[in-house]
Amino acid sequence: MKKLMKPLALLMAALMVTLTGCGGSGAEDNSSSVIIGQSSEVANLNPMIQPRTPDSNVQCLIFDYLVTPDENLNYVGDLADSWDISDDGTVYTFHLKEGVKWHDGEDFNADDVIFTLTSLASPEYTGGNEGRVMSIVGAPEYQAGTADSVSGLKKIDDYTVEMTLSSPNAAFLSNMYVAILPEHILKDESPADWGNDDFNRAPIGTGKYKFVEWEPGQYISLERNDDYFGTMPSIENVVVQFGADTTLVAALLNGEIDVLYNLPSTEIENVEAVDGVSVYNYEMMSVYYIGLNMLDPDLSDLRVRQALAYALDKQTIVDTVYGDTATVANDVFPDNHWSHNPDVTVYEYNPEKAKSLLEEAGYTMNSSTGYYEKDGRTLHLTYDMSTSTDGRQVAALIQQYWKAIGVEMEVIEQDFATLAYSKLLPNNATEETTADSFQCYTLGFGVEADPEEYNAYLSTSTGAGSWNFIHYSNPKVDELFQQQLLETDPEARADCFHQIAEILAEDEPWIPLYNKATSAGLSDRVQNFTADFRGINFQIEKWTLAE
After folding, report:
1. Percent of the chain, pLDDT > 90?
2. What pTM was estimated for this model as a whole?
3. Are residues 442 and 372 in the same domain?
């Protein structure tokens, strides 16, 4: 039998619900509804706009994809029923499911697929998914404005689409893990305007659930799509509730929400101690890391980056904040993915080595302040982070470790949207980051479909809207990213990523911190709950609600 929750935590839970509650969720307490809590509000409901996990948690309920990964990272059809690949690997013919309806009753067909993929190649599109289509013949020319269409996209009939690639591409099928948009609704809207379009706030998809309402700062409500072509969920209504971590934990413990996404590690013990709720841990294919701006005069020096890495006792950070729900990361590729290289350079905790590297780089200790200086400047670093309970703990420990080697660190905490769209993608991806945009930031990076996704972040590619926020550049890494696309042998392709990982470990533009499982708080009311790296709600059709 579970023991009682700690008295202080119980008092805080009761107080938070009394003061703020989780009322007004848009759904009455009944057996046909499930309420899911997440601390980050959704920014976009159009899945082609700057994809992020809090958004995709809802988007995956509303939209379907051309193909999807299964639990073993094998690709299976979703809106595609099947596909053929030519012997030379350059022509993919997708046969689409027939009888699929958009939520407004219109038929889904090949026009929607061609519209979606063409939009991603548009010169006006800045949503971050353009790399998925650039291997299709004519996509680069269309993006450059020198062609009126993507010549490699061809509609054979209403339910058959042919895609011709400029060369074989090992990541192409995984790149088609892309949500399909309705051509009949968005065809007259420029992709540049999608973020402000009504569709972004009230979308029409083909998915398991239909959009009902979005109350900003509070919730999004959905209702089951009873015309869904796939496995029908048993749960009729879904409400995704937004709020602070403390408020949501209190609501879970008091039975006001059923599922809590990304349960803070500090609350795991308290949740496990209460009857009627439990903790569900599931692995994500992601690495949490510190990104370093290579344009910064201090961070552009490899010795400084290596010193910062040597200064961190990653094992203590993991043990202190996450316990057994996380493991130390030394590779930028997730430990549970085939791209992971277990033999990369490891920066074992060594504060003295860190100090010697800083001194080798020309920094001298100011004995009165305890910080290193160079050219009259204190070695001061800003550390941008997205607001979270666990993130604060991690930041405090990093700040402590860097201070111990003479590096002053200033924590800048903000919501995810501010970090992403003001710092990393300035002016919502219409401007380029500079040396003054940021110094250090921390985020997690997950393999959504294929490790090729790292290409946009870590191969030489800069300019307005570039996902290479940090301006990292290494020609050998660029070469290997291109080579892996041509490899048909899985082992040879994995070897390319292992080489990339070793170079990145030596250059250290990212400091990998840890691999972490995601913890969900779960009411016993939710039965047959399952989640995995694809997202907390991806298999909601398996869930049932207790009577």
Report:
1. 76
2. 0.81
3. yes
